[in-house]
Amino acid sequence: MVHLFYIRNFRLLFSATAVSNLGDGISALAFPWLATLITRDPLLISLVAVATRLPWLLFSIPAGVWTDRVDRQRLMVQADLVRLALTMGVVALILTAPVFPVENGTPYILGLCGLAFLLGSAEVLRDNAAQTALPTVIDKDKLEAANGQMWSVEQVMGSFVGPPLAGLLIAYAVPAPFLMDAATFAIAALLVWAMRLPARGPKPQHRQWMVEAREGISWLRGHRVILQLALMLGCMNAMTIMVLTMLPLFGQELLGLNAAQYGLLVTAEAAGGVVGGLICPWIVTQMGARRALMLSLPLMMASSILIALFPVVWVVAPALFIGLFAGLLWNVVTVPYRQRHIPDALLGRVNSLYRFFGWGMLPVGALMAGAMVSWAEPHLGRELALRLPYFVSGGGMALIWGYASLRLKI
Asked: What is the distance between the alpha carbons of residues 328 and 280, in angstroms, rounded to a whole number?
C-alpha cells in the first residue's frame, strides 16, 4: 500500500473524511431508530428515508455548478457547519417531545423529514466538493491509492464503528447519538479549514446556472467513455439497491436472523469495502484499468446469483463481501479516470451529472424490488418472491457485463 500521510493536505482531508463518515454511520442508524420511537406507522417512517435521499436527485446538477463557482475548501467547511446546526435542530426536536412514542407523532415526523432533507442537501454539496478537491491535494499518479484509502476509511467509520456506537448511545439517551454526530461535523470542518490548497486561478464569470450546467452536459455528451460509465453506473446501482432493499426481509424470513445477527451480516458486507479499498489499487496496477473493470462486473453478478440460489448465511455473507469488493474495484478504476480526464473548471459539474445518473436510479431500483416481490408472491410464494430480485439483479449485471465487453473502450 502506498503511504500518503506525509502529504499534509491529504492527511487532513483523510482525517476529516474519517470523522464525518463516523457521523454518517451514527446517523444511518439513529435517524430511522428515532423515527420508530416517534411513530409505528411504516409509511411515516419511510418518509424519513425518502427525505434523506431526495436531494441527490433534485440538487446534484445545481450542486455541480455551485462547486465550480466557489472555493471548494470553504464550501466543505460551510456545509459541515450547516450540518452541525441542523443536527442540533434534531436534538431540539427530541427535547420538545413529551414522551416516546409520541401520541400524535405526525408533526414530529414531518419536522424530522424537513431536517433530514436539509442535511441531505448539505451532504450533496459537501461530498461533491470533497471529491472534486482531491486532485488538488494529491498527485495524479497517486489518485488510485488515495481514493482507495479514502473509501476504506469511509467503510470502517461508516459501517463498522458508526452504527454500533449509535446503538449504544441511543440506548443511553435518545439525543446522545445526534450530539455525537454534531461534534463530528465540527471536527471535520476544523480539519478542512486547516488545509492549505493552491489557488484555482481567476474566477470564471458567473452566468445563469442552466448555461453553466449545459456546458457540463455538453462535455459529458462529447466524452463517450465517461458517458457510458455514468449510464452503466445508474443501471448497476439500480440492480444493487434491489439487493439491499430486500435484504432485511430476506435475512429475517429466509436466513432466520435476529437484529444483532443481521448487523453482523451487514458488517461482512462492509468488510468487502474495506479490503477492496486497500488492495484494489494494487489489482488495477497489476491488471490494468480495463481488465480490472471487466473483473468487477462478473463478481457483482456472481454476488447476486449466489444469494438467490443459496439462501444460507455461510453463502450470503461472503457473497455480500464479494459484491462490495467488486464495487470498490469499479470505483478505483472509474473515479481516478474521471478525475484525470475532466477539466478542473468543469469537474464539479460533470461529477454532479455523473452522480445524478448513478444516485438518481436508487429510488427506482428500490421501488422495482418492492413491486416485484408484491407481484410475485401470489404466484410464486413468499420465499421465491423474496429471492426473485436477486435473480433479476444478477441477470441485469450480466447484461451490463456483456455491454461493457463489447462497447466500452476505456
From this structure: 7
The stretch 212-235 carries a mean pLDDT of 89
For residues 115 and 20, state if they share a domain: yes
Cell of 282: 494494487
Distances (CA, A) of 372 to 42, 236, 252, 369: 19, 17, 18, 5
Residue 30's domain comprises: 1-193
Based on the fold, state whether residues 186 and 220 are members of the same structural domain.
Answer: no
Say if residue 49 is in the same domain as residue 91: yes
What does 309-339 look like in DSSP terms, one character per residue?
H--SHHHHHHHHHHHHHHHHHHHHHHHHHHH
CATH code of residue 380: 1.20.1250.20
* Model pLDDT for residues 27-64, shown as the tens digit of each residue: 877 787 787 778 767 567 667 777 887 887 788 778 77
pTM of the model: 0.71
Nearest Cα to Cα of residue 192 among 9, 6, 4, 22: 9
Closest CA to 274 of 159, 358, 401, 179: 159
- Find how far residue 293's CA is from the centre of its chain: 20
Q: Would you say residue 164 lies in a domain? A: yes
Count up the domains in the chain and report the number. 2
Do 270 and 393 have their domain in common?
A: yes
Is 166 in the same domain as 242? no
**Chain centroid offset of residue 45 CA:** 20
The answer to whether 273 and 155 have CB atoms below 8 angstroms apart is yes
- DSSP category for residue 85: H
Rg, Å, the chain Cα set: 21
Q: Stretch 363-377: mean pLDDT, rounded?
A: 79
Q: Which of 193, 222, 244 is the last residue of a domain?
A: 193
**CB contact at 8 A, 167 and 40:** no
And the C-alpha cell for 245?
432493499
Report whether the peptide linkage leading into residue 107 is cis, meaning its omega lies within 30 degrees of zero: no
> CA 272, CA 396: separation in Å to the nearest integer?
21
Q: Can you give the pLDDT at residue 214?
A: 82
* Residue 217 pLDDT greater than 60, yes or no: yes
Residue 94 falls inside a structural domain: yes
Grid cell for residue 157: 467509520
- Does one domain contain both 122 and 245? no
- The answer to whether 359 and 237 are in contact (CB under 8 A) is yes
| 198 assigned to some structural domain | no
| Whether residue 79 sits in one domain with residue 222 | no
Please classify residue 204 by burial: count the beta carbons closer than 10 Å to its beta carbon, then call 0-12 exposed, 13-18 middle and 19+ buried: exposed
pLDDT for the residue 349: 79
